[in-house]
């Protein structure tokens, strides 16, 4: 982000700034995907293995809320 801010402050060509912004968004999307996969492999998996119905319900609710936010 600092690089993008610096590009704007340096009055860099708009397309170059937009290209860099797209790269940052893509990197964030990849990180988001990896964190979500890790959450499913660990937190949700552990709740299922432990058979903790309340915890499973809470974790599923968190995912539903997250996906609702993504649709906005």
Automatic annotation (TrEMBL):
Pfam families: Trns_repr_metal (PF02583)
Domain of life: Bacteria
CDD domains in alphabetical order: CsoR-like_DUF156
InterPro entries attached to this UniProt entry: Metal_Tscrpt_repr, Metal_Tscrpt_repr_sf
Family: Belongs to the FrmR/RcnR family.
PANTHER family linked: COPPER-SENSING TRANSCRIPTIONAL REPRESSOR RICR, TRANSCRIPTIONAL REPRESSOR FRMR-RELATED
Record protein name field: Transcriptional regulator
Species assigned in the record: Algimonas porphyrae
């Amino acid at each position: 982000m600092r690089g993008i801010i610096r590009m704007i402050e340096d009055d860099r060509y708009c397309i170059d700034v937009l290209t860099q912004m797209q790269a940052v968004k893509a990197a964030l999307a990849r990180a988001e995907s990896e964190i979500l996969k890790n959450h499913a492999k660990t937190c949700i998996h552990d709740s299922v293995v432990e058979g903790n119905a309340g915890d499973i319900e809470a974790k599923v609710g968190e995912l539903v809320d997250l996906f609702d936010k993504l649709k906005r």
